[in-house]
Write a structure and sequence with these properties.
Elements: H1 24-47, H2 50-61, H3 100-103, H4 113-128, E1 134-138, E2 143-148, H5 165-176, E3 181-187, H6 201-218, E4 227-233, H7 244-250, E5 252-258
Parallel strand pairs: 3-4
Antiparallel strand pairs: 1-2, 2-5, 3-5
């Protein structure tokens, strides 16, 4: 007997949408709850005392000033939210560029001892060098300053000049009282004529740095292990090399004093 093929019937049931199961009621309910909240807020305000009403009115009229024991004396002018003025650099800044967080008295943070010591050292350097020092920088890790190469060397020379004595003595006095490490970094400009007979700016700078290191070590000012000579050549220009004045600024001797390590 032949096999009978069974007919496969696919029954598709389409569910009808019912309005009662939609989400429109949630929107209506949310509006109702919001209206009730506003109603109870108004009722609460009507029953509040005058002091509380003044605080709330102050907040909405002066959102950029806190309430301090009554009406803020700096808030005589009504400035609602959205009408802020001043030198602020963002929309969050209020009158005169101040934000509420800036008006709150903040605890004074103690300055780290290393930073304070390096700041005092930078002041001593500025005074000792009679205004010749520049690019003075002091932070927690180090204090650095620069002097023109003419204070120690003649143009294109790597030997200390006869006129370098006054600056060498002043720096020697500074180094004597310092217990950290010292780096002598010699910088050049981009003019090959300033290198004299040397063909390499880095070799030229290193020769000068070693000459300065030997002077301080031989004088007993600094121990050999605490002073490091180095040369940056023209790679870290202090200013533009487009003028003779700028080139003179870039031909500098940079001293870095670090309490932990030489940089």
């Amino acid at each position: 007997m032949a096999d009978k093929k069974q007919t496969i019937v696919i029954k598709r049931i389409t569910a009808a949408a019912h309005g009662g199961h939609g989400g429109a009621w949630k929107v209506a309910y949310a509006d109702f709850v919001t209206a009730m909240m506003c109603f109870f807020l108004v009722m609460w305000l009507m029953g509040a005392d005058e002091e509380k009403k003044a605080e709330i009115a102050h907040y909405f009229n002066h959102p950029n000033t806190p309430w301090k024991n009554g009406r803020d004396p700096h808030s005589e002018t009504t400035t609602p939210l959205g009408e802020r003025q001043g030198a602020g650099d963002s929309i969050l800044n209020g009158l005169e560029g101040q934000t509420p967080s800036e008006m709150i008295e903040k605890p004074v943070r103690p300055v780290p001892e290393e930073l304070e010591a390096n700041r005092r050292l930078s002041e001593v350097v500025t005074e000792m060098m009679d205004g010749k020092a520049y690019a003075v920088d002091a932070n927690v890790e180090y204090m650095k300053f620069s002097l023109p190469d003419s204070a120690f060397f003649e143009d294109g020379k790597t030997e200390l000049s006869e006129d370098a004595g006054s600056f060498l003595e002043k720096i020697g006095e500074l180094f004597k009282g310092y217990k950290g490490n010292i780096t002598i970094d010699v910088h050049t400009d981009n003019n090959a004529k300033s290198l004299g007979d040397s063909s390499s700016a880095f070799e030229f700078g290193m020769t000068r740095a070693v000459a300065l290191m030997k002077y301080f070590v031989n004088k007993g000012t600094v121990e050999d292990g605490r002073i490091v000579p180095t040369s940056s050549g023209p790679t870290r220009a202090f200013t533009s090399n487009s003028t003779p004045e700028g080139q003179a600024k870039n031909r500098r001797i940079e001293f870095t004093l670090s309490p932990k390590r030489a940089l």
